[in-house]
Design brief:
mainly alpha, RNA binding, two-stranded parallel ribbon, Methane Monooxygenase Hydroxylase, Chain G, domain 1, 2 strands, 9 helices, 73% helix
């Protein structure tokens, strides 16, 4: 019997193990950067509207590092191995996407497009059903990142009142309602994306409660 077959197989196993550890290390770095970026971005909840640019300017170096982290991860992945290892980084990319979506909202009061997110993260969003030819952010990851914005908006509505900005909850409510209407146009399947979408109504309710309290107290017309 020629044992070289098994020796060659072991070499393949060793290579795959090395790749697994390299991907694990790269995703860990991405997660670390995202957590730091999230901490800096959360300062927006304690500032009035006219000082939000301080936060969006301060967060730019973190997005540059996120781009580097994703670039290092992309070097390790081929089209063949993309879906094999995708579960190792998908939650980290969702978090990075959520950060980009929130930062763009704070800066421009609008919804970040897939192209916007791709520019912030340094990778494209796959908008087609074509085979994967490079490292990309999937459409589901983009949509999950957008859904996370509702939670930030609900928190921002409450904290706006704390910093004596009683008009901003109305702006937030209008934007959130339009965004929710957009999601209702999508025929989402019964999976994690659908379950996350179903939770949006609780964030909408929190925003509406802030408006209700302000009106009852006569702080807004």
């Amino acid at each position: 019997m020629d044992l070289q077959v098994f020796i060659d197989l072991q070499d393949k196993f060793d290579q795959e193990s090395e790749l697994f550890e390299s991907v694990k290390a790269a995703t860990k770095e991405l997660d670390r950067t995202c957590r730091l970026a999230s901490a800096k971005l959360s300062k927006a909840h304690s500032l009035p509207k006219d000082r939000l640019k301080e936060v969006t300017d301060a967060i730019k170096p973190q997005f540059a590092t996120i781009q580097q982290n994703i670039g290092e991860l992309a070097k390790l992945i081929t089209p063949v191995t993309f879906y094999k290892y995708k579960e190792m980084w998908t939650h980290k990319l969702q978090n990075a996407c959520a950060l980009a979506v929130f930062a763009i909202y704070l800066e421009e009061a609008r919804l970040a497009t897939p192209a916007d997110v791709g520019e912030h993260l340094g990778c494209k969003v796959n908008m087609t059903n074509e085979p994967i030819t490079e490292f990309v952010l999937t459409l589901d990851e983009y949509l999950l990142g957008v859904i996370s914005l509702f939670g930030e908006l609900a928190r921002l509505a409450v904290n706006s009142v704390i910093v004596n900005d009683v008009q901003r909850p109305q702006e937030i409510s209008t934007f959130a309602s339009e965004l929710y209407s957009g999601f209702q146009l999508l025929n989402l399947k019964n999976d994690v994306l659908r379950r996350r979408f179903d939770s949006i109504k609780y964030d909408i309710k929190r925003i509406e409660e802030v408006q209700y309290d302000l009106r009852v107290r006569g702080l807004i017309s």
